[in-house]
Amino acid sequence: MKIEGATQIFKKLDIGSLEIGDYLAIGAIFAATDSVCTLQVLNQDETPLLYSLVFGEGVVNDATSVVLFNAIQSFDLTHIDSRIALHFMGNFLYLFFTSTMLGVFAGLLSAYIIKKLYFGRHSTDREVALMMLMAYLSYILAEVSFSSTLGR
Question: What region holds the Cation/H+ exchanger transmembrane domain (predicted)?
Answer without folding.
Answer: 17-144
